[in-house]
Design goal:
With about 110 residues, the protein is α+β, with helices and mostly antiparallel strands. It contains 3 helices and 4 strands. It is elongated and about 45 Å long. The two termini are about 20 Å apart.
Length: about 110
């Protein structure tokens, strides 16, 4: 099917909003949700935790490489989390809405 969700965690709402605007302006996603989260992870041998914003980006697999590039170029982290999760099923009217929004992206 080719549709999926890209997850990106970032350090602040401002950073998430900047990325959101870039992705939507370039018609790479139909919808992006921003959720506050608490992350626990290992970084350079130490246990860390931080408050982050999780971006839930609805898109098509064909847009992933461009999304990845934009996130890499504008993300504040040395190694940003960028995960593509395939969608197995999708409500047909929602699929059409996504297609209408992202089909013209270059």
């Amino acid at each position: 099917m080719g549709y999926g969700i890209v997850l990106v965690a970032t350090d602040s709402k401002a950073s998430a909003e900047k990325l959101t605007n870039l992705l939507l302006e370039n018609r790479l996603a139909g919808c992006i949700q921003l959720l506050p989260i608490e992350s626990h992870y290992l970084w350079k041998g130490k246990k860390e935790n931080s408050s982050e914003i999780l971006m839930v980006i609805k898109t098509h697999r064909s847009k992933y490489a461009t999304i990845e590039k934009i996130v890499q170029d504008h993300h504040p982290y040395e190694i940003p989390e960028i995960l593509f999760i395939p969608i197995q099923e999708i409500f047909p009217p929602y699929r059409q809405w996504l297609d209408d929004l992202i089909q013209e992206a270059k």
